[in-house]
């Protein structure tokens, strides 16, 4: 699933292409909205809220979309070939004079009144890349369930919005603890650092196509996707295991030397091959 910085870039791309323009094409290829026609309406803006996208139109309407694991919005110029996937994967088309936004594989697509946006995003915790960021509330949300594994708590968008599996792994490495550490066992000084560190990482990467967390030349990430290569700090082989249950299990990476705390229970997690890891998030 895309991280919050990827969704932020998608929102900016849609906003730059459509905002202030009148729609001359509107095509929703989902049964519920097959007869909806937004042509003639001006696009007001597109914003991100965590991993959610909200595109607003004059007349008080908002298109809510979520990329989940495989969704994407692509923007094309006049006459440009659409290359985001086969036609049967297209769920929405919004066209202006000169630019067309095409939504592929969007499993969440909802048209609602702008005044009702809160029912889709009000459950989110403070948005790391949005207005009203509140680090104290984010930390309080995380600490509210002290027995929960830190990695799982970081992925819960109700605590703070925007962290995905890559940042989960990288944050835990930078904090020096494993993703299986109970939140309540996180040392107070490291807990206090967590919200600002998370925000710093996402802000540093929101304008980049290649995500970087290390500051090291030629090395983008500390642990994510690196098993069983050596840790960039200590040389120990980076390890990989699943975290979560069933369909929610995510490939999780850590250095057993640089990160203190519990490892996954022996025999419970499955191992993740590197070629698979890179396609998950």
TrEMBL record:
According to the record, the residues making up region (Disordered) are 258-281
Q: Which InterPro entries match?
A: DNA_glyclase_Znf_dom_DNA_BS, FPG_cat, FPG_N, H2TH_FPG, Nei2_N, Ribosomal_uS13-like_H2TH, Znf_DNA_glyclase/AP_lyase
- EC number(s) given by UniProt: 4.2.99.18
Q: Which reaction does it catalyse?
A: 2'-deoxyribonucleotide-(2'-deoxyribose 5'-phosphate)-2'-deoxyribonucleotide-DNA = a 3'-end 2'-deoxyribonucleotide-(2,3-dehydro-2,3-deoxyribose 5'-phosphate)-DNA + a 5'-end 5'-phospho-2'-deoxyribonucleoside-DNA + H(+)
Q: Where is the Formamidopyrimidine-DNA glycosylase catalytic domain?
A: 2-130
Residues covered by the FPG-type domain: 222-260
Classification via SUPFAM superfamilies: Glucocorticoid receptor-like (DNA-binding domain) (SSF57716), N-terminal domain of MutM-like DNA repair proteins (SSF81624), S13-like H2TH domain (SSF46946)
**Annotated SMART domains:** Fapy_DNA_glyco, H2TH
The alphabetical list of record keywords is: DNA damage, DNA repair, DNA-binding, Glycosidase, Hydrolase, Lyase, Metal-binding, Multifunctional enzyme, Zinc, Zinc-finger
How would you classify this enzyme at the top EC level?
Answer: lyase
Protein family according to the UniProt entry: Belongs to the FPG family.
In Swiss-Prot or TrEMBL terms, this protein is called DNA-(apurinic or apyrimidinic site) lyase
